[in-house]
Amino acid sequence: MAFRPKNFLKHRVVLMPAATTQTITIGDALVDNGAGYLKVATNVTATDVHYIARDTVVTTANGQMVKCIETENVLFEADTDAAWATADVGTYADLATVSTVNPDASTDDLFYILKGVGTAGTDTKVLGFFTRAIPNT
After folding, report:
1. How far is the C-alpha of 104 from the C-alpha of 107, rounded, in Å?
2. Which 8-state DSSP code applies to residue 131?
3. Domain segments of the chain: what residues?
4. What are the pLDDT digits (tens) for 93-105?
5. Which of 12, 28, 88, 105 has the greatest CB tally within 10 Å of its CB?
6. Are 110 and 48 in contact (CB under 8 A)?
7. Residue 110: is its pLDDT beyond 70?
């Protein structure tokens, strides 16, 4: 389960410093920890997701570099924590976990659901953008 970029360019891959003791998996959403280091996002994250991990690593020191892609202007296929509904398309959603979207929650509006993948009411994948990439959000 993860965020998978669908239209990113290789030059969007960057090395970014992460906080210590972070268990990071490819496709995890990463946010700033307030001290200039990245940490894994959680379901209570109310901060824009600027990066998605491209490495699997457990960090051992502040500043350890982690390969990431920037989220701006990148379309992602995202796993959801429950089947998406037709009513979810064109709405904003929150994170359910570090690697999934909750299409039924919209307190923080971190992910815009462009369309569902598969069958509404059955499948658990959507296409969309992190709201940092959407003008005027």
Report:
1. 10
2. G
3. 3-70, 76-133
4. 999 999 999 999 8
5. 28
6. yes
7. yes
3-state SS assignment for residue 65: strand
Which is more confident, 7 or 43?
A: 7
> Whose CA is closest to 51, among 38, 33, 64?
38
Name the amino acid, one letter, at 46: A
Sign (positive or negative) of CA dihedral 111, 53, 45, 100: positive
Strands 100-102 and 76-80: parallel
User: What is the Cα–Cα distance from 15 to 13, expressed in whole angstroms?
Assistant: 7
- pTM, full prediction: 0.89
The SS3 of residue 31 is: strand
The type of residue at 64 is Q
105 and 45 in contact (C-beta within 8 Å)?
A: no
